[in-house]
């Protein structure tokens, strides 16, 4: 099974069982440099590789995903992710706005310098934020977290268990000195230590967090007895969408869509259109060719380079035909 990659992009192929059938998955990952002053993109000299497992910042139970796996069989819609840092226009500034617009996605998040709670005469007071110039956009800096301070009521923020600010009712966590989130909703800022707010972030959601875990299906005794090792019957393919729900575009992008991002580059605003380049696939099985379409279902905007990464994938059922798959050719159509 030879992979013939005729493109400048990274490409990989995988064979695995999907619903009891052997499936061939082809992933193509293209990295494009963004020229902020010209509102254009070009194929990058250095291409990001295909990621085969979720890469966390540390212990998966206490840190967020930095780079999500590219090895998933299908996504019914398009994930749009932001990666990098928020920047203030001046080093004396204490907050900034990170915002993005792409198709139906219009999202803004307030990024604030470090703040802590203090208690004075029984009242909780929020400190003034410290100035900053650069702050990494991580779920660890958004609202969330885990609270095990009260043995009778241990809880966690199911949408972001690695964040900060989450408290259960009857929490024994000290308020004085407790850190506030740096990333927060424009519409729902934190007002008091007990506030629960939707976490605001731009990066991948872990498989064990909501809403992804709600699509994973039911793994009970019936599943173990009758279905294992296959996925449960109520598994929902939306489980593979790793972007926050407000960063998922319906369907798949074609190229040419306008993108506007502010706050994640020292060069200022990033305005560009998605590249029209799209790869094609020809799989030789025995003496004939099959050409499943490569669909772009993931967009990653990396502010540090700056660059935009597009991920296309295609799958083909090859049950009983794996030895007959001779070549997998990836080429560009334009």
TrEMBL record:
Residues 20-313 form the DUF2169 domain. It comes from the Bacteria. Pfam families: DUF2169. This is DUF2169 domain-containing protein. The lineage of its organism: Bacteria, Pseudomonadati, Myxococcota, Myxococcia, Myxococcales.
